[in-house]
Amino acid sequence: MRPPSPSIPEKEFVVEALKQGLRLDGRAALEMRQPTLTFGPDLGWVDCSLGKTRVLAQVEAKMVKPPPERPFEGQITIHSEISPMASSEYEQGRPSEEEVTIARMLDKIIRRSDVVDKESLCIQSGQRVWNLRLTVHFLADSGNMLDCACLAAIVALKHFRRPEVEVVGDEVVVHPPAERAPMPLSMHHAPFCLTFAYFQDTSIPAILDPSRLEQRLSAGVISIALNAQRELCVVQKAGGVPLSPTEILRIVAVSTEKSKELDRFVRERLEDDWRTRTVEVV
Amino acid sequence: MSEVVLPGEPVNAKHPNLKLGPGVLQLLAGPIISTKAGTLCHNQNRSKWWVESNSRRYIPAAQEAVVGVVVGKNGAEGFRVGIGGPHNANLDALAFEGATKRNRPNLKVVGSLLYARVSLAHKDMEPELECFDAQTRKSDGYGELKGGFVTGCSLKMCRQLLDPKHFLLPLLGSKFPLDAAIGMNGRVWVNSKELRHVIAAVRCIERVDPEGENLDEKLVNAFLDTFDI
Fold it and tell me: Which superkingdom heads the taxonomic lineage of this protein's source (chain A) (predicted)?
């Protein structure tokens, strides 16, 4: 069933309130919802929520034989699917436009911007490399699932530890975690995605982290992915209202501040979690 | 008094003038069973029985008030209304106060909001709505909702809001004037002269929702003090 569009009173109310600088959840225009990260019992299992939007990301590693053209590189595969669990708007098996956009953005942000050092995932050249499988589950949709999914994926990769391996001659020995401490992935950087929504009425300023209703009513969104070192990774703007270069520079400046905040937050949360995990040395 | 039932459990309801509400079903042969999990309730003289539970999907039941969105026209004689249930509901164009074949309701646009009552809910048929009291043919408060804002909540929350003993609406009403229409389908329409009053009301409903933070009266009061109302 096609989702019904928001009713006229809802539309008018949101637009009128935004004109007065009010958002329904009491946020300022450029304020994002505070993310919450919950770590599971396994390493690389992260539940991230932005308000009521909730995304779960999980990383697994297994050994595979690399393709002959890339014998030194490990692989990352991303699986993301929006199930009807997120909202009754989504159907099983038929990817919506939003789902395709999210999957492509995740691919650009995580694989194409070289978040994980692929060569460090090589065990034995041409014989064995690690294959990382990142699964993203969308549990609840309350707007801006892309930013939430990106944050969950990055934190899951940071949280993940792969077992230590040793190559003795032609044999690969995998050390169980009880024997040798598992290794963190070697990561080049950690980009964060930030989404801004624009409205047809140009007197309304851009809003960060749109809720579901705001996203539905917006004339277009622009997603910016960058890391705390101020390196811009992806800018995506698929259609929507025209923007001037100064406006884009302004929101990029806003995003750099936000990504620094996010980076600090993620670090703190990972350290907190790490303290609760006792490492026993036998 | 309250008893927890699971789907399929026999319900011991006996009354000469028995009325079964949502979640209770009489099989053809006679035994009465529950069809959903929840608390079994009945009224004072044990003539009306129903099952209460919390959920997010609405299943239409006859005589319940709902807030719906017009999603399309049903030929010349009616509207299709989305009420958040598994199917869209039908609303006859003559089911309004003062509507006749010539004098049709002034409701043309897709996206209008309505406050209506479910007049027919059968498991094998699409639900039907009406915007008047069938006996008196008066609007009885039903009809188009203009302005304001609609918020979603859990089904338990709207039942609580309809309870006159619940604290939230009187509390909000003591702070600022407001109109509200509560649909049993998990949609609450709120309107007030000032936008920030509507926003305050919507945020309070969201936070009092038992599925969310389940705030009590004291905390809501403190929360309301953070607004400049």
Answer: Eukaryota
- The architecture that CATH gives domain B65-145 is Beta Barrel (2.40)
Residues 113-142 of B with CB under 8 A from A: 113
Do B65-145 and B149-225 agree at the fold level?
Answer: no
pTM of the model: 0.87
Domain ranges for chain B: 3-52, 65-145, 149-225
Closest to A62 (Cα-Cα) out of A70, A54, A74, A50: A74
Nearest residue of chain A to residue B68 (CA atoms): A7
Helices (H) and strands (E) in chain B, counts: 4, 15
Cα distances from A130 to residues A118, A137, B143, in angstroms, run 9, 22, 63
Determine the Cα–Cα distance for residues A184 and B65; give it in Å rounded to an integer.
56
Which of B148, B195, B203 comes nearest A20 by C-beta? Answer: B195
**Chain B residues with beta carbon closer than 8 angstroms to that of A5:** 111
**SS3 call for A119:** helix
How high is the ipTM of this complex?
0.85
CA distance A1 to chain B (A): 9
Q: Which residues of B touch A20 (CB under 8 A)?
A: 195
